[in-house]
Amino acid sequence: MNFPSLPPFAAPLPLALAGPPVLAFGAWFKNALCRAQDGVAVMSESVGDLDSPEARAHMDALAEALLASGVPAAIAHDLHPDFHSSRRACELAEHLGVPAIPVQHHHAHVAAVLAENKHPGPALGVALDGVGFGTDGTAWGGELLRVEGASFERLGHLDPLPLAGGDRAAREPWRMAAAVLHRAGRAGEIAGRFAAQPAAAMLAQLLDRAALCPPTSSLGRVFDAAAGLLGLCPVMRVEAEAAIALERAAAEYLDRGGNLPAEAGAWIIDGAGRLDLMPLLVALADEPDAARGAARFHVTLAAALADWVLHEVARTGLDVVALSGGCLHNRILSQRLGAALRAHGLTVLEAQRLSPGDAGLALGQAWVAIHHLNRGACGAA
Q1: pLDDT digits (tens, 9 = 90+) for 236-245
Q2: Options 2.160.10.10, 3.30.70.270, 3.40.50.1480, 3.30.420.40; CATH of 161-349
Q3: How far is the C-alpha of 320 from the C-alpha of 9, rounded, in Å?
Q4: pLDDT top residue among 15 and 93
Q5: 328 Cα distance to chain centroid
Q6: pTM (2 decimals)?
Q7: Could you report the per-residue pLDDT of 43-63, keeping only the tens digit for each?
Q8: What is the CATH number of domain 13-117+354-380?
Q9: Rounded Cα distance, 227 and 223, in Å
Q10: In 3-state terms, the chain is what percent helix, strand and coil (to 5)?
Q11: Structural domain boundaries of the chain?
Q12: In this predicted model, what pLDDT tens digit does every residue of 115-162 receive, in sequence order?
């Protein structure tokens, strides 16, 4: 491919997948674009979050540069219809007369790892992040998928927690902690435990009204709940502050030699493939040592996720697992989960050059779109 010699474009990634050219627009957070054709993919630099006119203009300029190589056969974008990246992808597709292909966020996460590792699938995919728009219209973020090319199946997910106050709960971990207490029948503790928060006195009443607290299966929000319950980060001032504080506290405890076993009985896997972490979170509510609690959380979470995957391995017979999503930036979690799965003889695929988070998402979108086009071509033949 002849790409413009601009610094925002990285060295091409080889793909074990031939197909027509596609342009992928990434998502909202840590936006980056991808153009794939002739068996290689090129990623743009990360634009950052598309919450400013400058970032959106930057994304548009990168898209124009990637179009210099020719009109793509299709344009891929996130399933969420209100992202600037999704809207611009659809506008451009209509203008060029090519199909716009929406790709579910976590399908794209897993696909990006498969693409980087040149694995065609099928494979189990674990997608762990803060939020992604699900096919049911709810907020996903703790997903166990079966991925094969253009298709995926949601085999399981984390048991949802309510977002007390909607999107505000993603910025205020104490609200996720309060949701855990409420679900555990301990709503009476919320006002006293979080007395420094002006809304604490009324939050139990808000949580009583499920329609005002949309559910999420996000592992990112589970991290927030743990940090809030341990008092490590009631309110975030910067992105991922709670998760970083939790990981730092756990690392310091483990580095001091505070080795801990996984908490027995701290998770439940039901017959529908849902992983319920409430027992673990409730135990953290009574943990007096925040660092030890953070370590218990990490060690037990890795064991719970491994157990969850192994249940599906036994059911599906698949022995390849792709680990993806922004929560995999957490080195304690990624290393322990990967090691646990490899100890059971599974092939574990992880992000290589690209981020496991949203900055690498466009590669997965492009991979899925090429599979869509190839499948259509085969059907037409």
Answers
A1: 999 899 999 9
A2: 3.30.420.40
A3: 31
A4: 93
A5: 9
A6: 0.95
A7: 999 999 999 999 999 999 999
A8: 3.30.420.360
A9: 6
A10: 45, 20, 35
A11: 13-117+354-380, 161-349
A12: 999 998 999 999 999 999 999 999 999 999 999 999 999 999 999 999
Cα dihedral 252, 258, 259, 264 in deg (nearest 10):
-100
Find where tokens 């090129």 sit.
42
Q: Are the C-beta atoms of 368 and 77 separated by less than 8 Å?
A: no
**CA–CA dist 60, 68 (Å, integer):** 13
Which residue, among 268, 242, 258, 255, has the nearest Cα to 330 in the 3D structure? 242
Asked whether the beta carbons of 146 and 318 are under 8 A apart, the reply is yes
Determine the Cα–Cα distance for residues 233 and 230; give it in Å rounded to an integer. Answer: 8
275 φ, ψ (degrees, to nearest 5): -105, 115
Q: How many residues does the chain have?
A: 381
Cβ pair 224, 243 in contact under 8 A: yes
The letter for the amino acid at 77 is H
8 Å CB contact between 44 and 85: no
What pLDDT is stored for residue 6 in this prediction? Answer: 45
C-alpha–C-alpha distance, residues 114 and 360, integer Å: 12
Indicate the pLDDT class of residue 289, thresholds 50, 70 and 90: very high
Which range among 59-63, 172-176, 180-184, 374-378 shows the weakest confidence by mean pLDDT? 374-378
Runs of H (alpha helix) within 273-323: 278-285, 290-316
- Angstrom distances, CA of residue 169 to CA of 47, 228, 282: 25, 11, 18
CA–CA distance from 10 to each of 6, 13, 105, 366 (Å)?
A: 9, 9, 23, 16
More confident residue, 333 or 11: 333
CA–CA dist 359, 325 (Å, integer)? 10
| Residues contacting 238, CB < 8 A, separation 6+ | none
Please state whether the peptide bond connecting residue 122 to the residue before it is cis, i.e. omega within 30 degrees of 0: yes
Among 83, 191, 185, smallest CA distance to 132 is for: 83
Measured distance CA(158)–CA(269) in Å, rounded: 9
From CA 95, how far away is CA 87, in angstroms rounded? 12
Mean pLDDT computed over 21-36: 96
| Distances, alpha carbon 377 to alpha carbons 39, 77, 119, 122, 247, in Å | 17, 21, 21, 20, 47
Nearest CA to 141 out of 173, 170, 178, 184 is that of 170
If one counts every other C-beta atom within 10 angstroms of the C-beta of residue 6, the result is: 13
